[in-house]
Amino acid sequence: MPSMKSAIRYWRIFEKYSFPPVAYDSTHLPSLSVLPVAFWWSHQHLDCRLITTRSFVQSKKGFPPYRSNYECSPKPQETLINSPVEEVKTTKVDHLELEEDRSAYVNLGFSPAQITQLFSLQLDVPFQSKLTAISELLLLGLSITTILKTLEKKPELLGMSPKHLKERADLLRRFDLDAGSINQVAVNFPSIFTVPHKRIKSLENLLKEKCLFTMAQVSKILQTSPQLLLEELNDVEYKFQFAYFRMGIKHREIVQSGFFQASLAEINKRINFLERLGRYQTPDKKEQTQIVNPKLKSIIRASEQDFVIEIACSSIEEYEVFKKLLADEEEQRRQQEEAMEEFSDSENDDGSGSE
């Protein structure tokens, strides 16, 4: 057994790290003389052993929790208790924000199904930006159905600034496009809202100043053939010249036929085929022909089978042979043009060298 002096020293340590007074009431401590050898552990280990008992007594008696400088490990219960509370708060906030978003779209006229469709697009755009962009599109005359179809094809539209959308709306109104026309263009060609303003103006100037279309005709072309905005201006001009000079078609029929919607290569094939069969003739300077030409609209809009059988009065086999011959002729023509260019370049080189 330890000496009395050592016992007194350990008793003082015990007093220093012991329970509050109430703990003595509920715990009967033995005398120093009968304390077991296991009691004489270090005071740090003793304090760790007593934390659980102390916390239990304090929770029963209503005392504030005791904290020691020597607590052995953090209490995992605190993490388990605090984390769910934070998740619940976050979930409640997200739920409230979602309800506010839904209410805003309901005020714009969206149905629950349309709101679900809009959210399913998962557009990484701030809520206020989306709401502003959609509001501008509604003011432009687009229906909610059209807006959703447009966003599926062109989701970056919602990233456009309100200023850009307002300017684009003013530009489209200047072309006298009504609500129905704007909805049609938006669904078939959503890039109408993202194409640079300068590009639209350049196409307008080309059609008005070089091709001599009226403003009403330009509006109709833009409505029916908005893809021209993505084509090279030289190609658009050449296409017009093919119709006007090669085919003898005037402005009104070019617009009404939807000429700019068709591929120039396909139109060229069909016109050549009809000419070789004697079923098409380019008008003379007096706009006269010796035969009655089929309407341009029927030539370019008919399916290949209907064109061959009903308009050309021929067979699919004959048309296939003709297309192969035409491709060979065009290849030979291309090679001849390249040879002429090389010959011209060599002559220029010789002339500059002799000087």
From TrEMBL:
GO BP terms: camera-type eye development; heart development; mitochondrial ribosome assembly
Organism: Pseudonaja textilis
InterPro entries per record: MTERF (IPR003690), MTERF_sf (IPR038538)
Family: Belongs to the mTERF family.
Protein name stated in the entry: Mitochondrial transcription termination factor 4
The encoding gene: MTERF4
Segments of this protein annotated with the region Disordered: 332-355
Alphabetized UniProt keyword annotations: Transit peptide
GO molecular function: rRNA binding
Keyword Transit peptide: yes
Acidic residues compositional bias, start-end: 338-355
UniProt xrefs under SMART domains: Mterf (SM00733)
Pfam families for this protein: mTERF
Domain of life according to the entry: Eukaryota
Keyword Kinase: no
GO cellular component terms attached to this protein's record: cytosol; mitochondrion
